[in-house]
Amino acid sequence: MNTQQVANRLVHLCREGKHMDALEELYGPNIISKEMHWMPEEVETKGIEAVRKKSVDWLNNVQEFHSGEVSDPIIAGNHFTIKMDFDITFKDRGRTQMEEICVYEVNDGKIVDEQFFYSE
Fold first, then answer.
1. What is the pLDDT of residue 40?
2. Is the pTM of this model over 0.90?
């Protein structure tokens, strides 16, 4: 798949709430995932196993998913970005309105790098 196809597929799966399916299908084995520098968890997670664990831990902390929206992707070469908005109740911090920009890099039809930008 090219970057546009990967981006479209990721958006499709995220809109259906199939985040783990997206990870299994679209992410490369050496994926690097970057969070904001002020997060209490690790800022950079490397490798599919570690990113899978990070995703499972995040999903296991969700008590209730109220609503979510995922924008259409914007493509630039082998990078793309999407905006995600969520209204989620977490087990450890209560109800939260999340708004983030996600930037992805694609090589050989797989996501090899992702970075998330959001406010505290």
1. 61
2. yes
